[in-house]
Automatic annotation (TrEMBL):
This is Segregation and condensation protein B. The gene is scpB_5. The keyword Cytoplasm applies. It holds the Pfam family SMC_ScpB. The keyword Chloroplast does not apply. Transmembrane segments: none annotated. Keywords: Cell cycle, Cell division, Chromosome partition, Cytoplasm. GO terms for biological process: cell division; chromosome separation.
Length: 228
């Protein structure tokens, strides 16, 4: 009888919360030990395994959430009458960078993607998929960004450790293509350093990949020697 009552209370608690609840929180609210909570969670999910039930308890974002079964998504879509928020490819790419490289700054995201990310970062912030997490101890003290619990819940992850493995060289490959001092166009595209013109006293000198540039600040002289 006690177990049946606890199952009902736990089910009501998860339903009312909506968002994931940690076992510590459930334990505190229900006045049970962590072991008792986990046993009841197991019992509740066993009942939901019955084909006649439309709910399940999933472990996500470090807690437990009552959700509909994935196979019933078609039925749920018939009920929902609202426009879904869809992320562009650019937003998804930027979100992936934050997820795998966090904490990360905007300039670091741009170095990997090769384009400006101001717009997509603001979109991700508005969607609460990423959040500010202090400032980096570097020149200018740029803002650092990390993913949120909403990100974990949205993608069905319990912790960031559940992210798939990705080779580090994939994330670094594009950054290695960029050189320090790279510029971006008004459209956010990377401007190549090749064939850039260097303005010196109303004269232009074209800088090739193999040219050697010597700068003498005191003599106000810039010497360009063809490389070998």
């Amino acid at each position: 009888m006690f177990e049946v009552q606890m199952l009902g209370q736990l089910e009501a608690l998860l339903f009312a919360a909506g968002e994931p609840l940690s076992d510590d929180k459930i334990s505190s609210v229900m006045g049970l030990t962590l072991e008792e909570v986990r046993n009841i969670l197991t019992k509740l999910n066993q009942e939901y395994e019955n084909e006649a039930r439309g709910l399940t308890v999933r472990k996500v974002a470090g807690g437990y959430q009552l959700t509909t079964k994935p196979e019933l998504i078609g039925t749920i879509h018939k009920l929902i009458n609202k426009q879904e928020v869809k992320l562009s490819n650019a937003a998804m790419e930027t979100l992936a960078i934050v997820a795998f490289k966090q904490p990360v700054t905007r300039s670091e995201m741009e170095a990997i993607r090769g384009v400006k990310v101001d717009g997509v970062v603001n979109t991700l912030l508005d969607a609460n998929l990423i959040a500010e997490a202090g400032r980096k101890d570097a020149l200018g003290h740029p803002i650092l960004y990390v993913t949120t619990d909403v990100f974990l819940t949205t993608f069905g992850l319990n912790t960031l450790n559940d992210l798939p493995e990705i080779p580090e060289e994939i994330l670094e490959a594009k950054a290695e293509e960029l050189q320090e001092g790279a510029l971006f166009s008004a459209d956010g595209e990377l401007l190549p350093l090749k064939d850039e013109k260097l303005e010196i006293d109303n004269t232009s000198a074209k800088v090739a990949d193999t040219d050697i540039i010597n700068v003498d600040v005191e003599q106000e002289k810039i010497e360009i020697k063809p490389g070998s």
